[in-house]
């Protein structure tokens, strides 16, 4: 008896609580649902994987290797170079990135300077710029900032860390890498290796507007970007609006709001 009643009960709840617009929901609203990649929640201006381009800003396409794995990797392309996304904080607009070429080895096959697209990102005040010097002529004395590569000697330098100052002239390759000041402090205290400093990554802040998106999400919409008109778009269940969904709409369930989803993502690892 219990079993036969159950489906009727479910069907009743469904027909009573499901708003009519669900049947004709705007495809853009549907497709731009934020998603999790590992412990990082991807939402506007970020977009990627199965989502259409209009779900985010063109410079913020991410690549998630496997959405369903706890340890999946999030990658972002900046100036044609891939960075691993180690953290994403939507309210403060800060992204923590690490260069992918140094993840396996501190001695890369190809030497590339870190360059940001400065119309999209800026470094935060927690960063400092370091220089890795490669292909150095061997020297008798060894300094703390020296490390070995299969080919030749190499050095890690910052404004304060300069070895004995003669490296510059002995090395023919230099690579600019932003690092966290805090990691450099720990290197000086012998708590981190050069490779560990680099792989702790660095922070960038994105400079495109996030306020419009907050308003859109508050009104029950999902943010997007129209690359034809180059304008922000708020996708609501019925259609797209330029700013926010018109008021009387069913309130969104809190679990769908990015700010809440991020908090969930941050604690998922601990
Ligand atoms: C993710 O974790 C699984 C199991 O813990 C492991 O087998 C797999 O190699 C890991 N993948 C990556 C990309 O680290
Ligand atoms: C990186 O930038 C520095 C300073 O701008 C330059 O001297 C160096 O040649 C560049 N290195 C590479 C690998 O492009
Ligand atoms: C930098 O970002 C802007 C804005 O998205 C884009 O128009 C420009 O092409 C980017 N520059 C490079 C060199 O990728
Ligand atoms: C720095 O190292 C070079 C190469 O080993 C050496 O010739 C030079 O004397 C050193 N300079 C100082 C100030 O120690
Ligand atoms: C640096 O020196 C090495 C060894 O002398 C040489 O093979 C390499 O081509 C040089 N690279 C540059 C960028 O000058
Ligand atoms: C972008 O704007 C144009 C012109 O208003 C419109 O035709 C198009 O459907 C919009 N695209 C998206 C993805 O909203
Ligand atoms: C995600 O997990 C990694 C490794 O477990 C951790 O280093 C990182 O801080 C976490 N990111 C966020 C946003 O919580």
Automatic annotation (TrEMBL):
It is a single-pass membrane protein. GO terms for cellular component: membrane. Its main location: membrane. The keyword Nucleus does not apply. It catalyses: L-seryl-[protein] + ATP = O-phospho-L-seryl-[protein] + ADP + H(+); L-threonyl-[protein] + ATP = O-phospho-L-threonyl-[protein] + ADP + H(+). It is found in: Membrane. One of its GO terms (molecular function) is protein serine/threonine kinase activity. Keywords: Glycoprotein, Signal. Residues 32-98 form the Wall-associated receptor kinase galacturonan-binding domain. Residues 164-239 form the Wall-associated receptor kinase C-terminal domain. InterPro entries: WAK_assoc_C, WAK_GUB. Its EC number is 2.7.11.1. Pfam families: GUB_WAK_bind, WAK_assoc. Residues 1-24 form the signal peptide. This is non-specific serine/threonine protein kinase. It comes from Tripterygium wilfordii (Thunder God vine).
